[in-house]
Specification:
mainly alpha; extended; 2 helices
């Protein structure tokens, strides 16, 4: 349910992933580029952690390229 009480900034490339009835997407012009930062425990090897980390780091790019 959309309550009309929120605002979120998402990357333009992710808009299509977040289409929902009642949600409106508006471009925000002249914003500087953003940097994504992630953190995780080095000893946590669960796939629920390892897969997103690989997708967001060079590990994911190297794996897809190979």
């Amino acid at each position: 349910m959309v309550s009309g009480q929120g605002v979120v900034l998402i990357a333009e490339g992710n808009v299509s992933l977040h289409q929902r009835p009642g949600l409106v997407h508006r471009p925000v012009r002249r914003l500087p580029e953003a940097e994504l930062a992630i953190a995780w425990r080095a000893d946590d090897h669960r796939s629920e952690v390892a897969e997103p980390v690989a997708a967001l780091t060079d590990r994911g790019r190297r794996r897809r390229a190979g």
